[in-house]
Amino acid sequence: MKNFTKRRVLLALISIFVTTSCILLVLNILERKTEGKFQTVHLKDIGELEDDPAVWGVNFPYQYEDYLKNVDQVRTRYGGSEAVKRVSDSSDPREIVSEDKLKIDERFVTMWSGYAFSKDFREERGHAFMLIDQLYTKRQNVGQPGTCINCHASTYSAMMKLGDGDINKGFHALNKLPYFEAAKNVKHPVSCIDCHNPKDMSLRVTRPAFVEGIREFKKSVGVHEYDVNKMASRQEMKTFVCAQCHVEYYFKGKDKTLTYPWGKGLKGDEILSYYNEIDFKDWTHNLTKSAVLKAQHPEFETYSQGIHARSGVSCVDCHMPYKKVGAMKITDHHINSPMLKVNQSCRTCHNISEDKLLERVAVIQDNNHEMKDTVFNALVSFIKKIEANSNHPKIEELRKAQRDAQFLFDFVEAENSNGFHAPQESARILLKSLDIIRKGEELL
Questions:
Q1: In this predicted model, what pLDDT tens digit does every residue of 213-258 receive, in sequence order?
Q2: How close are the terminal C-alpha atoms of the chain, in Å?
Q3: Residues 80, 123 contacting (CB under 8 angstroms)
Q4: Could you give the CA distance from residue 345 to residue 332 in angstroms, rounded to a whole number?
Q5: Residue 24 vs residues 38, 201, 326: alpha-carbon distances, Å
Q6: Strand residue runs (E) in 99-233
Q7: pLDDT at 19
Q8: Which of these, 306, 334, 312, lies nearest to 417 by C-alpha position?
Q9: CA 44: distance to chain centroid?
Q10: What angle, rounded to 10 degrees, do the helices at 395-413 and 423-442 form?
């Protein structure tokens, strides 16, 4: 009798456990289904000119939480940075910066002699620092136009206000201002409003320079009157919103209008041809008196020549991959190197181990680093030879060779993927730079 009672109690307990587990499982499934169904909760109306990401974060807390992580400083094999402490002072309130690349590699000082970058050039930091680092760089000591603010702040609201609702008018007004006057019109680094329409969260391009630049490029390949916000696919927009800033550019005319030099194409030598045709220069080199150019950060142009672009993979797919939060699928707004999140960024397409993927990237970047080092040495040596032969009968040809070789090298050096975005194209541009140096030295 006692054994029978024990069995009944045991069966009852098992039944209670199974029933409770099933109920909890069903509740969990229902909760996850609800999460999946309601990706956002509308708690606050977002105004057309709202540039504060914290306000957007009320409706999108998970994305905002990721956005705040962009203060992280993490070193990768050839990119990123580590936090370096400094003592703040009246001229610069920053207590954390990144390593001074001019001290790490003095060849940059020679290449940029006479230019602002020879005064201050540091390792990369995340989007969170794009405004404050530009405000307090020593490059400001030589004076910078308001044009520079375009890629160092959330500018959509500023342009709309300066233009009384006309973004193009506001864009030109912002360009004309001295940098610190322009900075008074902005409050945040890149923000939600720079890429998203607050009405429906769709992606949009808000930088007039890109709208015009991509129109010029499309015209060069036979597509006329291209309107990026009407004609681009959603997948294309996942690259174009990034390409608003991660590009090569120059300041056009006395008004310093931000312009993307894409009328002849996106490749480094095509852009050089564009600059040579309009006889543009960034500065006169102190050592050689050559009319030289400074490449900026041509990630979009380089990516466009690579296998991922040809395969339809966007910037967002790799640098802001999807991730799960409960049952919700959201875009990771902690924007950093795909090498820091290989499983989400790479292994959704590449069915091989994380170690193997990292190894492949390392080979590409190691080779690129070796090639850059070789060309950099040749370029610096060439610059010093031109300096020592300032009275050479073919000095103008030598200066032209420096201009072309230096820009092509800098085009690869300034691009932040360290060759990964387009390994063969990067190697081609470096080889072309080296060949120009070789031919230039034959003139001596």
A1: 999 999 999 999 999 999 999 999 999 999 999 999 999 999 999 9
A2: 111
A3: yes
A4: 10
A5: 21, 35, 16
A6: none
A7: 76
A8: 306
A9: 30
A10: 160
Alpha carbons 102 and 119: distance in angstroms, whole number: 8
Contacts of 90 (CB under 8 A, 6+ apart): none
Rounded to whole angstroms, how far apart are CA atoms 253 and 250?
10
Place of tokens 């220069």: 281
Q: Distance (Å, rounded) from C-alpha 352 to C-alpha 339?
A: 14
Six-digit token string for 52: 């504060």
Find where tokens 């322009």 sit. Answer: 182
Cβ atoms within 10 Å of 13's Cβ, excluding its own: 10
Amino acid at 142: V
Query: C-alpha distances in angstroms, 260 versus 235, 243, 252, 337, 378?
Result: 22, 11, 9, 25, 29
Provide the token pair at 159.
């342009």
pTM of the prediction? 0.90
Residue 190 main-chain phi, psi, to 5 deg = -50, 135
pLDDT tens readout for residues 310-320: 999 999 999 99
Number of residues assigned to the chain: 444
For residue 91, the one-letter residue type is: S
Residues 375/409, Cβ–Cβ less than 8 Å: yes
**Nearest one of 51, 204, 73 to 127, comparing CA atoms:** 73
β-pairing verdict for 96-97 and 250-252: unpaired
- 347 has pLDDT over 80: yes
Whether residue 77 contacts residue 254, with contact meaning beta carbons closer than 8 Å, is answered with: no
- Single-letter code of the amino acid located at 417: S
Rounded to 5°, angle at Cα 78 from 120 and 259: 55
- The 10 Å Cβ neighbour count of residue 28 is 11
Q: Where are the beta strands (DSSP E) in 67-192?
A: 84-85, 96-97
